[in-house]
Amino acid sequence: MTSFQYLHTMLRVKNLDASIDFYTRLLGMTELRRREVPAGKYTLAFVGYGDEASHTVLELTYNWGQDDGYDLGTGFGHLALGVPDVAATVGALRKEGVKVTREPGPVQFGTTVIAFIEDPDGYKIELIERG
Predict the structure, then answer these.
(1) Could you give the CA distance from residue 84 to residue 2 in angstroms, rounded to a whole number?
(2) Would you place residue 1 in the very low, low, confident or very high pLDDT band (cuts 50, 70, 90)?
(3) 18's torsion region: left (phi>0), alpha (psi -120 to 50) or beta?
């Protein structure tokens, strides 16, 4: 089986600035990077206790115009695991009966190769190719 690295957990937030303040100022994390995606109408901010190469981080996703927020159950996004080869990993997992909900390919509005699978309870897991 392939080598996995737990990369991040994604939460949808209703106020990105307030969430970043909470995780950085109050919990001591550092904002590692931020990416605005106008075509997709969202902003991603990654926070954590160390660099993404060696630490699991938190991805805060603000979907523009969602200021009313989310129900607690819809705020959770997905777990993310890094793998050396997304297509090969998906192929091996599919043979084991794992449900693939997004086939391997570049992320919309980007070039990173990803895929999505589901665990037995239906929780989404993103596989991200990490050379």
Answers:
(1) 8
(2) low
(3) alpha
pTM: 0.75
What is the per-residue pLDDT across 7-27, written as a single tens digit (0 to 9) for each?
999 999 888 999 999 899 988
End-to-end Cα, the chain, rounded Å: 16
Choose the catalytic residue: 31, 52, 118, 126: 126
126 labelled catalytic: yes
> DSSP states of 61-101 as a string?
EEETT-TT---HHHHEEEEEEEES-HHHHHHHHHHTTPEEE
Walk me through the domains of the chain, giving residue ranges and CATH numbers. Answer: 5-129 (3.10.180.10)
